[in-house]
Write a structure and sequence with these properties.
The protein is of the alpha/beta class and 238 residues long. The chain has two domains: 5-195, 2-enoyl-CoA Hydratase, Chain A, domain 1 (Alpha-Beta Complex); 199-235, no CATH class. It is 44% helix and 18% strand. The chain has ten helices and ten strands. The chain has helices at residues 29-44, 84-90, 106-112, 129-132, 140-148, 150-159, 165-170, 183-195, 199-211, 217-235; strands at 5-10, 13-18, 50-55, 59-61, 95-99, 102-104, 116-120, 124-126, 163-164, 176-178. Strand 2 (13-18), helix 1 and strand 3 (50-55) form a beta-alpha-beta unit. Helix 1 (29-44) packs parallel to helix 2. It is globular, with a radius of gyration of 18 Å. The N and C termini lie far apart (61 Å). The relative contact order is 0.12. The mean pLDDT is 95.
Length: 238
């Protein structure tokens, strides 16, 4: 049987590919187990500096496979108490979402756990929680409004209407839109750019940027200033 998630390493970059194309890469327990193991491997390995997350086929991820609800353990698939937000947050290395097609509901949430998104022209984003009657739990109500603003998030979640790649670009959900054939090459180029900077400072900057998700602006700014003062003292710049 084909693996539900493919994991490849090329230089310092890992490519993680959701691999249930016949089911539009819908989420089942086995896919989650292999996805979480792949993210953990990125975290563990010193030779990997960045990961790209994408899907095989026409979809990025169509959300939870409705056929496995009530059968598969989707909340704790590995039995270690770790759910999707826990696993994604525990990886302190950059993850680029390369959205090749539909990102729907749970798949949309998975995409938003990446550090930023590059989208194919054929990508679409849909929050269908209200349409299919599933309570959100992987971050939709919080991550979407952080990305596009509360009013747009309400419209998308209340209407369940699709957001095209170009509209996602206009409202700030994705960083770039490229032709389908250029998606992975572009993501690899960005990954290479990431690997060429001072990686120690990059990781500190990632942590500082995300600090504002947890504390006030003033407190997050204080963390940055304290870190800079510590840096200057150690470097004996002045």
């Amino acid at each position: 049987m084909e693996k539900t998630v493919l994991f490849e390493v090329e230089g310092p970059a890992a490519l993680i590919t959701l691999n249930r194309p016949e089911r539009h890469n819908s989420i089942c327990q086995d896919l989650l187990v292999n996805l979480y193991d792949s993210i953990d491997e990125v975290s563990r390995r010193d030779d990997i500096k960045v990961a790209i997350l994408t899907g095989n086929g026409r979809s990025f991820c169509s959300g939870i496979d409705l056929g496995v609800i009530g059968k598969d353990n989707l909340l704790d698939p590995r039995g270690d108490g770790h759910d999707m937000p826990d696993v994604m947050a525990a990886c302190r290395k950059p993850i680029i979402g390369a959205i090749n097609g539909n990102a729907i509901t749970g798949g949309f949430e998975l995409a938003m756990h990446c550090d930023f998104l590059i989208a194919s022209e054929s990508a679409r984003f849909i929050d269908s929680h209200a349409k299919v009657g599933i309570h959100p739990g992987w971050g939709m109500t919080q991550l979407l409004q952080r990305s596009v603003g509360q009013r747009m998030a309400k419209q998308l979640s209340f209407t369940c209407r699709p957001l095209s790649a170009q509209d996602a670009l206009r409202c700030g959900l994705v960083n770039e839109v490229v032709p389908p054939a250029e998606l992975i090459p572009r993501a690899r180029q960005i990954a290479q750019d990431i690997c060429e900077v001072d990686y120690r400072i990059l990781l500190k900057m990632k942590n500082l940027i995300e600090k504002q998700n947890e504390v006030s602006f003033d407190e997050a700014f204080r963390y940055e200033r304290e870190g800079f003062h510590d840096f200057v003292r150690k470097a004996n710049v002045f």
